[in-house]
UniProtKB/TrEMBL annotation:
Locations listed in the record: Cytoplasm
NCBIfam families tied to this protein: murD
Residues reported in the UniProt entry to bind ATP: 118-124
Gene3D superfamilies per UniProt: Mur ligase, C-terminal domain (3.90.190.20), Mur-like, catalytic domain (3.40.1190.10), NAD(P)-binding Rossmann-like Domain (3.40.50.720)
Stated name of the protein: UDP-N-acetylmuramoylalanine--D-glutamate ligase
EC number(s) from the headed UniProt entry: 6.3.2.9
Gene Ontology CC annotations of this record: cytoplasm
Main location, first listed in the record: cytoplasm
Originating organism: Pontibacillus marinus BH030004 = DSM 16465
Highest taxon listed in the record's lineage: Bacteria
Transmembrane parts of this sequence: none
């Protein structure tokens, strides 16, 4: 495994554990750098803290005392910790560099990096790009917000490996020198304003994916999104636009039969299994990133013929007695659910609900035209039932959980219906993660007869 060489800092604080913090602390320690770790969770309930202590790393748990900054010249922050945290604020006042582990991954990686960001579609685009390169027999590794810690994966890469990284705004705002050879900026919608406070800061954070690029690099971007296009005007790298609505002679576009990169036919539209207009954007971005990284048209087509979605994101689950089930548990906001609903022009039973963050659901109304029933659960069930009633949906039923929702949806369904779990809410009122929620739904579906 590789370690950091010529690292310009000697005393590093890793703030916050979870997978990324543990990986960063371990890497720094193995690189001969003095590391201190600070985590909110008490030591007795903190297995990661115990593991790091056994490696000889100093760990301070149970709170965030300012004393942990003593002697520190570099701060590696868990992406989820806000900049309002007292330790982070004090570090800023002291002029310390504040980064996320993605910065460490960049310092380790020898081969080209594809960095993929956007408000929606990151996981699908990242997975597609990775699989297209794999299918084309290109050496490639997958990392980032998709569940694999970047600095951990980067330790095992060579100069021949392409590293495909899914990047959140939380990760990107904590970068200094990070420079992917290919940057992908999918879209920009209002999100995470509890963290970023303003859309300007949120957009600026996303734009860090290309800010350090130069003329030898590429930025693939959504030409149908004005805000994205305006940000990309700042890039020094070569622009590769994609559009589902207009001809892009220097990028990715489509006609009624083919998807093109510039003037080259890449894949027939009829060969693409993944449904939804939003997924066409993800596909276009993936095609551009993969082709620029050496993927073949045969490899790209092979993936698109069989890829039906990543787990919990518009994932086909099963067809039963003429009913088709989709798991979109990762749809934790209105935008994601509206895109899911837009993917179908058949009668749909929507399963939705979850954590109540105080928002209303009126923005979903234009997307309910094919929804004939709603099965609702969680804290927001009453609000969503009111939405259903206000939009002429005669059947809106509140149940206790997604297992019951799957069973009830099947009970009232007709042949030809789509049964769609797309909650429009976070899962934390009832489930630890959206994955747990989606898994319960799929288990329930597979027991139906």
């Amino acid at each position: 495994m590789k370690t950091l060489e010529k690292f310009p800092y000697q005393h590093v604080l890793v703030l916050g554990l979870a997978k990324s913090g543990e990986a960063a602390a371990t890497l720094l320690h193995e690189s001969g750098i003095q590391v201190r770790v600070n985590d909110q969770k008490p030591y007795e309930d903190n297995p990661q803290a115990k593991t790091l202590t056994q490696k000889g790393i100093e760990v301070v748990t149970g709170g965030h005392p300012l004393s942990v900054l003593e002697g520190i010249d570099y701060l590696v922050k868990n992406p989820g910790i806000p900049y309002t945290n007292p330790i982070v604020q004090e570090a800023e006042e002291r002029g310390l560099p504040i980064v996320t582990e993605v910065e460490l991954a960049y310092r380790l990686a020898e081969g080209p990096i594809i960095g993929i960001t956007g408000s929606n579609g990151k996981t699908t685009t990242t997975t597609l790009t990775y699989e297209m390169l794999q299918e084309s027999k290109r050496p490639v590794k997958l990392a980032g917000n998709i569940g694999k810690v970047s600095c951990e994966v980067a330790q095992s890469t060579t100069d021949k490996d392409t590293l495909v990284i899914e990047l959140s705004s939380f990760q990107l705002i904590g970068t200094e020198t990070f420079k992917p050879h290919i940057a992908v900026f999918l879209n920009l919608y209002e999100a995470h304003l509890d963290y970023h406070k303003t859309m300007e800061h949120y957009g600026y954070s996303k734009a860090q994916v290309f800010m350090n690029q130069d003329e030898g690099d590429y930025v693939i971007y959504n030409a149908d999104h004005e805000d994205v296009t305006n940000y990309v005007k700042q890039a020094k790298s070569q622009p590769i636009p994609f559009s589902t609505t207009s001809y892009q002679p220097e990028g990715v576009w489509k006609d009624d039969e083919w998807l093109y990169l510039k003037q080259e036919k890449i894949v027939r539209l009829e060969d693409i299994m993944l449904v939804g207009a939003h997924n066409m954007e993800n596909i276009m971005a993936s095609v551009a990133a993969a082709k620029l990284s050496g993927a073949t048209n045969d490899g790209i087509t092979s993936v698109l013929k069989t890829f039906s979605g990543v787990k919990h994101r518009m994932q086909f689950v099963k067809e039963l007695q003429g009913r088709t089930f989709f798991n979109d548990s990762k749809a934790t906001n209105l935008l994601a659910t509206s895109k899911a609903l837009s993917a179908f022009d058949t009668p749909t039973i929507l399963l939705a609900g979850g954590l109540d963050r105080g928002n209303e659901f009126d923005d979903l109304a234009p997307y309910l035209k094919n929804v004939r029933a709603m099965i609702l659960f969680g804290e927001t069930a009453p609000k969503l039932q009111e939405l259903a009633q206000n939009n002429g949906i005669e059947q809106s039923i509140i149940v206790d959980n997604v297992k019951q929702a799957a069973e009830e949806a099947y009970r009232i369904s007709n042949k030809g219906d789509v049964i769609l779990l797309s909650p429009a809410c976070a899962s934390w009122d009832q489930y630890r993660t959206f994955e747990e929620r989606g898994d319960m739904f799929m288990e329930a579906v597979h027991t139906l007869e």
